[in-house]
Design brief:
Blueprint: E1 6-9, H1 19-32, H2 39-45, H3 51-60, H4 69-81, H5 91-101, E2 105-109, H6 113-119, H7 124-130, E3 134-136, H8 148-156, E4 164-168, H9 171-179, E5 183-187, H10 194-197, E6 202-204, H11 210-213
Parallel strand pairs: 1-2, 1-4, 2-3, 4-5, 5-6
Amino acid sequence: MTPPKLVIFDCDGVLVDSEPTTLTLLRDEFEYYGLPLTAAEVDRDYIGVAMADIAVKARANGATLPEDWVVSIYSKMFERLRKGVPLIAGIEAALDALDAAGIPYAVGSNGPMAKMDITLGAHPALLERLKGRIFSAHDCKAGKPDPELFLKAAAFMNVAPDACVVVDDSVAGATAGVRAGMRTLGFDTQGDGAHLTAVGAEHLSHMDDLPARIGL
């Protein structure tokens, strides 16, 4: 197997374990505004999608979200995230392996830069490794599942899409990676990744396995 020339990581749920905070907050908000859902339903249908798109979908499903909800939810989310989020197990060793092999990496997230400043900023050594290679869908015309974000990262790093590997834990992100023409690893530590393989990704269950999966 020929190793990739670039690995593009999602942020939430792939680099930092911030998704439980987001999931709980969204579930509580939806219930407050008339859309009671289980945590599993929120995870399946809303996590990994740009917040503006989440608002559109939730309203279509019956939530009476106020007009300023996106601004409000980010304010609440940032307050909670500032309490700290752990790193995903094995991510530092995976990045070490990429560094040792001379393979660059980047971040492509649907979240805003302000959010990543908080979550990645809680881990200064990680943030330093990623400096200058963090891309947000808020700077694109559309977020995942549109492939623009990943294609933008690849172009910036001067790497052809078919020489890239994407690591993402959401259906939207996995779809974006596949649409970009990139080998896509669907990161799921809790199950068999069936929701990710259904859109064309390969299941990755632990970051410790990443180096071998990409030919290192």
